[in-house]
Amino acid sequence: MLYSKNLRLLLKNKSKYNFIRSVVNLAYRVHGKQDLDNPIIILHGLLGSKRNWESMSKKIVHVTNKTVIAVDARNHGDSPHHHSHTYPELASDVKHLMDSLSIKKADIIGHSMGGRTGMVLALTEPASVSRLVVVDISPISTAGVLNDFIPNVLKTMKSISFDGINDVNKAKAYAKKLLQSKSINADTIGFILMNIGVTPYKTVGWSCNVEVLSKYFIDIANFPNMSGKKYTGLTLFLGGGESPYIPQEDINGIKTLFPKAELKYIEDAGHNVHADSPTEFLQIVTRFLLLN
């Protein structure tokens, strides 16, 4: 895991406008052999972390015999907190990690927010991405659930104070009770509670940066303008059949950005495809990554 002062890079976007992107040193875990020649990099979703992908990472290593690197996005898990959170920055963080590990190319698997991060990386740094797997998120449309449910969850998380609590288990029990009072379902509560731990400030509380994620929710919920860019490498969009996040009608817009994209669904899975149908997910994804 890496921690250091944030870097500032001035990057010129090819669509004729300039902007400053911050870059942070991301926390990560390497699974399998320490071979960094075209590894698989896994990018989690909003309010997730590399821990959510522990089991699947090990399974992918077993099937592919390739190195898997599971990453914590900025403002999540063990990665640094930062005052901004946009997809160009998230993609730059991943490229910075690759450069720091001397990784020239990698297969990218990204779920939800991580999927959009992977898309931006592939569109802006195409030579760095061998193959791209986007799990249950679209660059074209935004599922309505993002506009209502997630902001309410973040608002509830912000309202919980852990002052005076210095034990992680007590903090989880306290937060669970308050989340239940807001009629949030048990599965979602369990997922949210995984964000409670020792913060970068050495206190017990949310390991994710709830304030910044709330502030930048519009940026997270919408894919940035990537018009004029294309990623011509092999790309798999894998959606949950029970999820609204990748409508079938998005395929034409997807192919404008990713001409070699294919769209598949796992019928009985929801948004967390890898958790809902792990066996089928593993089979489809590894088969795609091992294609000649």
Helix and strand pattern: EEEEHEHEHEHHHEEHHEHEHH
Main sheet, how many strands, which sense, barrel? 7 strands, mixed
Rounded radius of gyration (Å)? 18 Å
The average pLDDT value, as a whole number, equals 91
Structural class: alpha/beta
Low-confidence stretches: 1-19
Oligomeric state of this protein: single chain
How much helix, percentage-wise, in residues? 25-40%
Give the helix tally. 11
Largest beta sheet: what is the strand line-up?
3-5-4-6-7-10-11
Q: List how many beta strands DSSP finds.
A: 11
Query: Ends: how far apart?
Result: 33 Å
Classify the beta-strand content into a percent band: 15-25%
Shape: globular
List keywords for this structure.
11 strands, 11 helices, disordered N terminus, 7-stranded mixed β-sheet, about 290 residues, about 35% helix
